[in-house]
Amino acid sequence: MPPQPADSLAAGIPDPKRWTALIFIAIAQLMVVLDGTIVNIALPSAQQDLEISQANTQWVITAYALAFGGLLLFGGRIADLWGRQRAFVVGLIGFALASALGGAATNQAMLFGSRALQGVFGALLAPAALSLLTVLFTDAKERAKAFGVYGAIAGAGAAVGLLLGGTLTEYLDWRWTFYVNIPFAVVAAVGAVLVIREPESARNHSRLDVPGVILASTGLVALVYGFTRAEHEGWGESVTVTMFVAAAVLLALFVLVESRVKAPLLPLRVITDRNRGGAYLALGLAIIGMFGLFLFLTYYLQVVRGYSPVRTGFAFLPMVFGMVVGSTQIGARLVTRVAPRNLMVPGLLTASLGMLLLTQLSLDSSYAGLLLPAMVLLGLGMGTSFMPAMSLSTTGVRPTDAGVASAMVNVSQQVGGAIGIAALNTIATSATTSYAEEHGVLPIDPAAMVEGFTSAIWWAFGILVAAAAVAGLLINSRGGAQARPEGEKGLGEAEPVPVLAH
Q1: How many CB atoms lie within 10 A of CB 15?
Q2: How far apart are CA 326 and CA 309, in angstroms?
Q3: Predicted structure pTM score
Q4: Rounded to whole angstroms, how far apart are CA atoms 444 and 387?
Q5: CA 455 to CA 266: how far, in whole Å?
């Protein structure tokens, strides 16, 4: 009788169904990433239908961001404790139910509640998905291919969300931007139950660090809310400042607690490794620039150029194509042959070149002459750099820490996104206001808006260059083979494999 998957994993044999499992992990990841932008396109329609005030509209986005960002580390550790497959399935089912609630919303409270629930289950699902890749794919070449697919989805999913959100809103109804998650979740959950298995050795049987959970969750909520509020109320507003101070105090206490407890929520070894820490930081900086860009280009195409939501979505497809090619055909093929920073630095600089082109936006910029080449460069650069960054972020961690290490990838993305939207939008608004005052026009004048966009894009260009510098200075892993924690067995290995020299 041939060995069963669980027996194979216990014996150190790679799961024969791991590539099929990747399909369902990818579907789930696509659903989570799509949700970050798909609802944005539908927001004006939902606001009108449910009679949501302009002041409260932000809570459709904020409710999700606070729950998701605040609970990511908790969700990652729960995945380590429960098992990633179980956390993955529970996250999918919960996300589907929350999406059904959002689609059926009859008032704003119901909609806001559904978005918060989506964030809760997303915080469980996202780290479980990434950590499943970490424990299922341990061979260097196979891991590169798997993370190439994951990186492409992580990078391109936001742009695909704009296209899908525009199509659903224009041709069906805003409610379908919620309902569309249900088939994604059902297919992924059924596939996970039937196909996905994980080695028992990867389970973490330690007690849950409750003080760490409270401090990390409240600290991250305060941080994300501070940036979200700054976008609308200003950086010097009292509640905004209070949130930032509270976040600093809570997260400092969190680090202190984690350095002293026996079974920490986030073992500091996960982030103090210079390569993983450098990958988290470089990824976060790259996301700051990219999230702001999506916002400005969407407004530029729809408000300044008069594109429909669907046409706007199609306009982003070259960036999606570039990300897929960069992640699967460049990053995944080269990551086992060259050092990670030799992919990340050129990738981030290529993306910054695309951003530099976009600083030349004008009222009548040619799509084919300016936007198209800029988006291709951005896509290729981000895809090439995201893939090794995500792989490096979970390389060498103990199997029992895979969930929380994966959660840190999502934390860097979530916090980066919050900073990017708040900081770059503030810069754009200030530049637009100054231009309007100098030229005697209203801030909604297209020329004033373009001035604001290009000012913020200059900053985004600088941030991408800074991300490349961080990758070049901090990351010194030689790459190639899969790194292992020193003195520990790798998944499926009989003897310890030393960590790569730094």
Answers
A1: 21
A2: 26
A3: 0.79
A4: 39
A5: 38
* Reported confidence tier of residue 261, pLDDT bands at 50, 70, 90: confident
Instruction: Tokens for 292, please give them.
Output: 């702001």
**Six-digit token string for 331:** 């990053």
Q: Per-residue confidence at 12, pLDDT binned at 50, 70, 90?
A: low
Please give the distance of CA 333 from its chain centroid, rounded to a whole number: 23
Alpha-carbon distance 348 to 151, whole Å?
14
pLDDT score recorded for residue 155:
64
Report the chain's mean pLDDT, rounded to a whole number: 81
Cα 309 versus chain centre, distance: 23
Tell me 79's DSSP state: H
Residue 167 half-sphere exposure toward CB, CA atoms < 13 A: 10
> Cα–Cα distance between 198 and 234 in angstroms, integer?
47
At residue 500, the 3 state secondary structure works out as coil
Sequence letter at residue 407: A
Is the separation of the CB atoms in 147 and 154 below 8 Å? no
Report H helices in 300-371. Answer: 309-315, 317-324, 332-334, 341-358
Question: What does the DSSP 8-state code read for residue 204?
Answer: -
Contact (Cβ atoms closer than 8 angstroms) between residue 205 and residue 263: no
Q: Identify whether the C-beta of residue 304 lies closer than 8 Å to the C-beta of residue 450.
A: yes
Identity (one letter) of the amino acid at 321? F
Matching residue, tokens 């396109």: 41
Q: Find the range with the poorest average confidence among 196-210, 215-229, 264-278, 404-418.
A: 196-210
Burial of 55 per CB tally in 10 Å (0-12, 13-18, 19+): exposed
Q: Which residue has the tokens 């799961």?
A: 15
Distance CA 478, CA 483 (A): 10
282, 250 in Cβ contact below 8 A? no
Q: Above 60 in pLDDT, residue 339?
A: yes
Q: Residues near 86 by Cβ (< 8 Å), separated by ≥ 6?
A: none
Tell me the chain's radius of gyration from C-alpha atoms: 22
> Pseudo-torsion of CA 387, 389, 394, 397, nearest 10°?
140
Q: Which amino acid is at 179?
A: Y
Classify residue 437 by burial, with Cβ atoms within 10 Å: 0-12, 13-18, 19+.
Answer: exposed
DSSP string, 274-320: HHHHHHHHHHHHHHHHHHHHHHHHHHIIIIIS---HHHHHHHTHHHH
